């Protein structure tokens, strides 16, 4: 029996083994009654743990393909289902991964879905999800808007709508952006199924496999995943407290001529950094000089807790280089799945073609509800309320960190957005800390998921938006207790750091 493992692959080793044996059985290379090698022997031959082979065999057994008998070992089963061998083969389900495109192979990071699933665990305090608090969804307003709409428009709310989106909502957004000095007519605006769709459309329209794109050194993982799935070569530019380091950006632009620069200038996810005005201007100057479009992702700028409103890159852009993306997910509710983009007309037409293939158009009812909500002035009132509440939650998290943090933990003090970005004491690996924190029922997002390449293992993101001030204090207390224990016992610390610590204890 010929089985190999590929240690570079993202597919877990046990699955690689399982899939190959499965394939050998389904293609009749291994006949019913064939005795599989003992687990220990196969593990030694492949250089893997015995438990890896045990897991592979266990899954094959669960699929009914093999059976273990005490004393006789593990044997390939007779697979019922057909008279003749040939027909039997045809009636077996396909091994789906053999049919996948190479693009599918680049879409194998379940992190976002995992975080979304974590919300459901009630006994755990989650600082992992950076979205509005459930108690702030404007349920009563939505309820009366929906019943009003039903009376007024009835079945029309369940019809198809234009691909670019509900016209009154695009018109509203044009006026809303004009107040923020962004010049875009309804014809430049496309309503999206969340700004995530805007990232995907940009990837589809701009990126050929092998094309370069530039991102910030740590950034929204959904963007990294979309660009990676499109086959982009991703170049990360370091940031400091003023945002993207434009001197490094200049070198990257000169050397790699990327298709676009993806940036979140205002209250960046995960760092909370707000790019300075000087940097914004410099970034645009470089984009013009190297003729590189800028994809500006701006979900958080309305959520400011101190300081003034920062001008978007789009509002400073005098030469149509900026594609602007924003969303209702952070300022109203993420389940609406509504965002929008503003782009120069030619490009808007091309993005529209891509959207048409994606989903035809966004949900008609959701767009009408949000349009009514905004036009009734409720968005502004809602924003005033949530800014105040999130500011209190941010302050509660900062105060709790001050109270409980062990030495060596550093954190940002964001002026807006949902996230506090932490750097860990030397030697503490965020992934190892997370496993221990989950046991103590508190979660966060480790920093490496925000990095396209290596790095970020000594960082983590804490989101304060979804928990009350009391829960935040308890969650930070638990988090800091786990971290302190890890530092004091040395368990889970990097090997190098532990050795240094052991040495330190000798003197
Ligand atoms: C920077 C950034 N861009 C885009 C998104 C996706 O948002 P949406 O719900 O609008 O798809 C998020 C959500 O976390 C985000 O933080």
Automatic annotation (TrEMBL):
The keyword Transferase applies. Keywords: Aminotransferase, DNA-binding, Pyridoxal phosphate, Transcription, Transcription regulation, Transferase. It comes from the Bacteria. Signal peptide: none annotated. Residues 11-79 form the HTH gntR-type domain. Homodimer. Belongs to the class-I pyridoxal-phosphate-dependent aminotransferase family. In the C-terminal section; belongs to the class-I pyridoxal-phosphate-dependent aminotransferase family. This is 2-aminoadipate transaminase. It comes from Pelotomaculum propionicicum. The gene is lysN_2.
């Amino acid at each position: 029996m010929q089985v190999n493992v590929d240690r570079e692959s993202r597919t877990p080793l046990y699955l690689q083994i399982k899939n190959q044996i499965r394939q050998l059985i389904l293609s009749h290379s291994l006949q019913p009654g064939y005795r599989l090698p003992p687990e220990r022997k196969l593990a030694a031959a492949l250089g893997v743990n015995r438990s890896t082979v045990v897991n592979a065999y266990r899954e094959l057994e669960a699929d009914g393909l093999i059976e273990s008998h005490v004393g006789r070992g593990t044997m390939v089963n007779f697979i019922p289902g057909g008279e003749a061998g040939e027909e039997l083969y045809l009636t077996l389900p396909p091994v789906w991964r053999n049919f996948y495109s190479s693009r599918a192979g680049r879409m194998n990071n379940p992190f976002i879905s995992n975080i979304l699933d974590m919300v459901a665990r009630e006994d755990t305090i989650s600082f992992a999800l950076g979205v509005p608090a459930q108690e702030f969804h404007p349920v009563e307003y939505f309820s009366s808007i929906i019943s009003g709409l039903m009376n007024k428009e009835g079945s029309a709310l369940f019809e198809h709508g234009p691909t670019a989106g509900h016209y009154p909502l695009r018109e509203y957004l044009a006026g809303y952006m004009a107040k923020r000095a962004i010049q875009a007519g309804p014809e430049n605006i496309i309503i999206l199924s969340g700004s995530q769709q805007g990232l995907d459309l940009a990837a589809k329209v701009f990126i050929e496999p092998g094309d370069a794109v530039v991102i910030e050194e740590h950034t929204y993982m959904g963007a990294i995943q979309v660009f990676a799935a499109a086959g982009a070569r991703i170049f990360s530019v370091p940031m400091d407290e003023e945002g993207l380091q434009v001197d490094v950006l200049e070198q990257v632009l000169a050397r790699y001529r990327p298709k676009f620069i993806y940036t979140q200038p205002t209250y960046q996810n995960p760092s909370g950094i707000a790019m300075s005005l000087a940097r914004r201007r410099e970034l645009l100057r470089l984009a013009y000089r190297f003729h590189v479009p800028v994809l500006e992702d701006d979900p958080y700028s309305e959520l400011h807790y101190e300081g003034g409103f920062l001008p978007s890159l789009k509002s400073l852009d005098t030469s149509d280089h900026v594609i602007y993306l924003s969303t209702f997910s952070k300022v109203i509710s993420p389940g609406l799945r509504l965002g929008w983009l503003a782009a120069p007309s030619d490009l808007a037409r091309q993005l529209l073609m891509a959207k048409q293939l994606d989903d035809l158009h966004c949900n008609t009812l959701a767009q009408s509800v949000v349009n009514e909500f905004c036009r009734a002035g409720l968005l502004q009132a809602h924003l005033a309320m949530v800014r105040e509440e999130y500011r209190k939650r941010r302050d509660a998290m900062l105060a709790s960190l001050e109270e409980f943090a062990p030495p060596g933990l550093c954190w940002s003090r964001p002026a807006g957005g949902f996230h506090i970005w932490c750097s860990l004491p030397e030697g503490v690996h965020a992934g190892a800390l997370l496993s221990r924190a989950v046991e103590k029922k508190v979660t966060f997002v480790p920093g490496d998921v925000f990095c396209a390449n290596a790095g970020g293992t000594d960082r983590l993101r804490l989101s304060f938006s979804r928990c009350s001030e009391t829960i935040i204090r308890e969650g930070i207390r638990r988090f800091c207790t786990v971290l302190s224990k890890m530092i004091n016992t040395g368990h889970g610390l990097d090997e190098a750091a532990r050795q240094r610590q052991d040495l330190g204890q000798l003197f």
